[in-house]
Amino acid sequence: MKIATYNVENLFDLQRSGHEYKEYIPYTKSNWNNRTYQIKLNNTARVIKDINADIIALQEIESLRALKDLRYTLKRMGLYYQYYKIANYKNTTVKVAILSKIPFVYSHEIAVTSTYKYRNILEAKFKINNEDLYLLVNHWKAKSGPESRRIISAKILSKRVQELGINKNIIALGDFNSHYEEFKTFIRKRRHNDTNGITGINHILGTINNQTTANKVKINAGEFYNLWYDIDKNRRYTYIFRGKKEALDHILITKNLLDAKGLEYKSKSIHAFEKEYLFKGKSIYRWQTKRANPPKHKGKGYSDHLPVIAEFTY
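Now predict its structure.
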């Protein structure tokens, strides 16, 4: 079973909701129109089709309409996801979603806060060969803001794990806007470190205690293991910022998925999806806009993030 996560970078529909970024208001000087929208759908669908995951978590989907249009584009390309869900209760500018070949037992949203500032977490339960599997799809606050904002999401995620049961098969995945060792990278950055060195991904979720390969790790109940530790350091990235590779997107698992029984993470299977067409020179070939006010869409490119994939056996 292949599970993936992909921040698709601003997949907006062509309906005016009043929550768009300026450059995504349809049919304006920004050039966001039928042509550019269809190119964006086709390019995003190409990546997802090539991954061909059984379940894929998505970030930066504007609406249910955009998700359905993406699903229809995939179907035209020969990949059918019968089951789908978007965290649509809040009018946040972009949202998280799931496309799946496997039916949901249920799916629902977890409110991080009551304000529009924080995107809801999307939870889905699956039944895999008679075992329960819980997926929690995240998109934490951007790195332009301090770590305290990401800790708010981390605490809600951790609380939900406690509610589900610390010995359950749980995968938390998505764009955490955090390095897998954020506690090292942010320590001297004043605008980030407003938490006395405490990070959401490492301390609140417990990944700081599990920095070894999957076949050697001993995870405590309630903690997560970050699958990036299962492969070489130079392969741990999904984003390139000013020429430097970073891992902002993650697949985290609870200890039950490493107990050598039933549903299980497949060793060394975690990887970024690095197809040649997703790069331009040494950079990720993100969706292209021209400098203008508002920025103008060129109708080229994919996303500023690479997808992440992991495999599981059952």
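The CA atoms of residues 174 and 246 lie 14 Å apart.
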